[in-house]
Automatic annotation (TrEMBL):
<dbReference type="GO" id="GO:0019353">
    <property type="term" value="P:protoporphyrinogen IX biosynthetic process from glutamate"/>
</dbReference>
<dbReference type="InterPro" id="IPR038071">
    <property type="entry name" value="UROD/MetE-like_sf"/>
</dbReference>
<keyword id="KW-0210">Decarboxylase</keyword>
<feature type="domain" description="Uroporphyrinogen decarboxylase (URO-D)">
    <location>
        <begin position="142"/>
        <end position="158"/>
    </location>
</feature>
<dbReference type="GO" id="GO:0004853">
    <property type="term" value="F:uroporphyrinogen decarboxylase activity"/>
</dbReference>
<dbReference type="InterPro" id="IPR006361">
    <property type="entry name" value="Uroporphyrinogen_deCO2ase_HemE"/>
</dbReference>
<feature type="binding site">
    <location>
        <begin position="27"/>
        <end position="31"/>
    </location>
    <ligand>
        <name>substrate</name>
    </ligand>
</feature>
<feature type="domain" description="Uroporphyrinogen decarboxylase (URO-D)">
    <location>
        <begin position="22"/>
        <end position="31"/>
    </location>
</feature>
<feature type="site" description="Transition state stabilizer">
    <location>
        <position position="77"/>
    </location>
</feature>
<keyword id="KW-0456">Lyase</keyword>
<keyword id="KW-0627">Porphyrin biosynthesis</keyword>
<comment type="similarity">
    <text>Belongs to the uroporphyrinogen decarboxylase family.</text>
</comment>
<dbReference type="Pfam" id="PF01208">
    <property type="entry name" value="URO-D"/>
</dbReference>
<comment type="function">
    <text>Catalyzes the decarboxylation of four acetate groups of uroporphyrinogen-III to yield coproporphyrinogen-III.</text>
</comment>
<dbReference type="InterPro" id="IPR000257">
    <property type="entry name" value="Uroporphyrinogen_deCOase"/>
</dbReference>
<dbReference type="GO" id="GO:0005829">
    <property type="term" value="C:cytosol"/>
</dbReference>
<protein>
    <recommendedName>
        <fullName>Uroporphyrinogen decarboxylase</fullName>
        <ecNumber>4.1.1.37</ecNumber>
    </recommendedName>
</protein>
Amino acid sequence: MSALRNDTFLRALLRQPTDYTPIWLMRQAGRYLPEYCATRRRAGSFLQLCKSPALACEVTLQPLDRFPLDAAILFSDILTVPDAMGLGLYFAEGEGPKFERPLRSEEAIRALAAPDPTAELGYVIDAVSEIRRALDGRVPLIGFSGSPWTLACYMVEGGASDDYRHLKTLMLDRPELLHHMLSVTAKAVTDYLNAQIEAGAQAVMIFDSWGGALSAHGYREFSLAYMQRIIAGLKREKDGQRVPVIMFTKGGGQWLEAQAEAGADALGLDWTTDIGLARQRVGDKVALQGNFDPTALFAQPEGIRREARRILDSYGNHPGHVFNLGHGISQHTPPEHVAALVDEVHRHSRALRAG
């Protein structure tokens, strides 16, 4: 494969000096882009788009053709893993993801098995290879998965939930049964991410979208411990290059010190945590990724630029910052506002380095 021409993102994750702060966006290939919407219509559905390596490659590259972003992220969905475990993923119009067979019985949970990622998830692995070839060294490619806890939220509830009552009831009534489910899912995620790395992913990210719904004790036992297990099992070097790992718990800013001990190279932050204080709290243990509020992208460009400068100034002229949103971009975001954000991050961070 071609040599990497822009490795700023990877160097920032490893806390190495960079000429500017790199930026990519969670859900950067999405419905806010008209070209993405056109490709999705051609695919017929979101799931068909995910399951076509050629179309997944096409939409992965679309934001890079619009904006000078510093990384590409595989176009897929965190729920492909439980789908491969036999739960029957489908997307109800206007309702989001659902599972035909949520895990509500001990028998179903005990029968759960980790899939072979090159078989049941082969379409994702093929997409990684195709995207990496198409990038041709332009920027690094990020692979990803959901965390075991976050996947369990969907696997037990059967879809999105306001209170996770089925899962939290299981956690308190039958903790050993939940631990079994999380152990199997952690193995599935480890195998899946290693297969992505083998296929060409140059960094990987674990999305713990619902870890912040737990208590402090629950987070350590049922979420963080399993992410730590995954990180310990990952292939951390490929072709002589370090493969950095990013761990992101939305709503988890109060547990940064514990997260920094989990073995990841970088921690993601949502917008509720001050990034300057976070840097002081974790010291030189990890890089930090974040943490622009995605809703702030509805402001006018000058307001967007001002907020970007505030975050960059808060972090300061130190290595180890990857600029990102605090969660996924809204489908209603004007693309020209994204252009203003990317431009300001590059412009102001270069000025910070020069100062």
